[in-house]
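Before relying on records like the one below, remember that each one covers exactly one chain. Contacts with other chains, cofactors or solvent are not represented anywhere in the record.
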Amino acid sequence: MKQHKGKIVEEAIKKSGYQVKALAERLGIARNTLYTRMKEMDLDDSFILKIGKIIHYDFSIDFPALDTSQSSYVEEPQVLYKSAGYRNPDFTQLQELNRKYLKLLEDYNKLLKILILLANSNELMGIKKEIMEFLENEEKQDEI
């Protein structure tokens, strides 16, 4: 079965948080034209590559046969969308908080790995057991 390229591109745009109006302007087309193009099952590779460069998404993951050599699109300098009025300030703040939260989670996981390594290397079975129980409890709470 053939992939519906338009739907895949539309999903990538939604996940990126990039506003369709701003994307259409960057592409030099009307917003309605962009929506119409996303309904097409077979989009042109160059069009997909243009969108990918703007939203910073690698469509070669979704379309392995995508010919990236034909990309002649040169991206214009990034516009600050806060000042241009394209981004909702709440959305921007949410993205920033999400970035900080993910960084904290990564640091937390690194710390737990270090503690486990220390417990293993020093044969501190009590600490190791407590860490393992803590991790199991965390996993149980995540499932709830």
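The chain has a mean pLDDT of 78.
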